[in-house]
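Hi R.,

Here's the chain you asked about this morning:
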Amino acid sequence: MTEAHADPKRWNALAVLSIAYLMVVLDIAIVNVALPSIQKDLHFTSAENLQWIVSGYALTFGGFLLLGGRMGDLLGRRKLFMVGLALFSITSLVAGLSTSSGMLIGARVAQGAAGAILSPSVFSITSVTFQEGSERNKALGVLGAISGAGAALGVILGGVLTQYAGWEWIFYVNVPIGLATLLFVPRVVRESHAEGMEKKFDAIGAFTVTGSLMLFVYALTRTNQVGWSSLETILEMIGSVVLMVVFIAWEARSRFALVPLRIFRRRTLTGANVIGFLLGTMIFGMFFLLSLYMQQVLGFTALKTGIGYLAVALTAVVSSGVAQALVTKLGIKPALIGGLTLVGGGLVYFTQISATGSYFVDLFPGFIILGIGLGFTFVPISIAALAGVTGRDAGLASGLINTSQQVGGALGLAILTTVYASRSSSLERSGTPHPQALTSGFSLAFWVAAGVAAAAILITLLIVRREDLQMQPETEPETAAVIAG
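And the predicted structure, written out as tokens:
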């Protein structure tokens, strides 16, 4: 898109897209503060079962994002955006009406699939609406800032709603916002789609990769109950591997693959997705476990827990704005290295939490460090994931980076929860008091997350290049047709 053909309503469109995207990002984390209340009301029996409220959503969200992105490219990005937004509102209503643990998990799984239809259209519409360069970077930076601060804002809102209205309202709140946003979409968002492509979808790829990941997480979360060497665990892990092999083999030969291998020729895009995966691995589990620590060990209410996250939320918002300017001037790599180092530093700080600790000693400094790191990490990742991407691949690239973060988050949550539960259960069986056992489990899980941060820094150094953010589009012609709505 050239300046001469720039959409005059593009900033209004970005506002509408941002509201919808914030709903999706918030819903990943908003349940964290409400988990103890949900556990009590719906009779969840363990932390491993409770984590399915978060990971069930993240797995279907991540597993179907690529399919949602490709469907948007082919059928119309605005059309899929509106369908996804409507379904997201409906499944939110069902989640709030849940009367059992199974019903809530099922609603969250369906809600994740709705988010997978909605979310990639946000990024791909933004990509084809704004000209590549500083203007598109600013728009993507806004979405990156939402990614960075949304998780923390989610737990704040979750605390307020849970305390004063009940946990059901963390889901009900999406309904009026979603329906109101739907009314404005046709007025400010243009339809766009990728031309010259057959309208074929890789449903086999979407279901095999999602099935593989869900089976792996299911097996992982049951190891404390049945053991690593049990026949059930072994068969479930084998099944997960088989499905993943089928997925890779299918993608290699399919004409309509969800993930065409050519997309990975862009080295920075590849690096952004690997780092996004690792970042999700750290962050999802961290918020889950810190919410449990504040309520089950420090005795915080849901509201106090939510307010406790205000430090990281505000810091992430401010640092995201600074990061947008620095990424454009200095490049992606320096911002990423700095951001990941700070995220890792925050995680190391949390390894020192105490069973008799306090907010301002055990948590507040870590939240400040973490908030700065999140802003300087999510913004460059969002830009790097779409650098040089043409309209034809906009949905694929945006779906891929979201998939990486969501899948990493779901797997990381399962891994960190398993580490925490295994350590704390073992200590309790040996006679360690309950608060100390829980705290030791949290600490070990945070050490694991800090190790993941170190790996992400190393990958940034080895893979990510200093990108010229003013680069011209690649030689492949722009094929996205923008049609006035």
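The chain has 19 helices and two strands.

Let me know if you need anything else.
M.
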